[in-house]
Design brief:
CATH superfamily of the domain at 33-47 and 80-225: P-loop containing nucleotide triphosphate hydrolases
Radius of gyration: 17 Å
Distance between the termini: 25 Å
Number of strands: 10
Structural class: alpha/beta
Order of helices and strands: EEEHEEHEHHHHEHEHEE
Largest sheet: 6 strands, mixed
Oligomer: single chain
Strand order of the largest sheet: 6-7-8-3-9-10
CATH class of the domain at 33-47 and 80-225: Alpha Beta
Number of helices: 8
Shape: globular
CATH architecture of the domain at 33-47 and 80-225: 3-Layer(aba) Sandwich
Length: about 230
Amino acid sequence: MSVYEVKDLKKTYQIGDVKTDALRGVNLTINEGEFTAIAGPSGSGKSTLLHLIGGLDKPSSGEIYLNGKRIDQLDKKDGAAVRLSTLGFVFQAYNLIPVLTALENAAFVLELQGVSKKDREAKALAALKTLEMDELKDRRPNQLSGGQQQRVAVARALAANPKVILADEPTANLDSETGQRLIHYMKKLNQEQGVTFVFSTHDPRLLEHVSRIVRIEDGKVTGEEQPKPMAA
């Protein structure tokens, strides 16, 4: 069953008189339960594509369907509601709130959803435990390593039980050992809980473990691969 259907997606940025075609007619299907990477060099359009399917930006033209519902034409309020109920996000820069503890950061999306304090703390703690971060639940971001902060970011995405997690270069700022550990956790979530993951990446460490690679270059899909996944 398809989660995403992307049809002839285009995105043009204009600064003054200069136009840049970031995406030039992308067609893509993402199926439920996939562990997929959108891969390409810097400037290829992979992060732009991830932001568009996540509803964080609007395409110049084309169509985006999430679970059969067209989302690219939604207004700001309805788009935010879809993101809140369906999607989890993991960003390269972590985007944790400095004044909140790991537990409070992991519970933040649940708070936005209106979940009671007791329930959201229980769900956030369970997500942190899945990522072996529960013992550090009272630490703030500046008291955590980069890898620990990224695991809190994944816990935040996971706690709200999203159908899809979109991860933009999740291992880019991590050393080899920490990156491999994070990949292991994400793959475990995919295999044991059926969470669909879509990554933008050019990290070979991550590409070794995905079940599908969509290659993108100069704003166009240039091919696909289905490598035999390695054990995480």
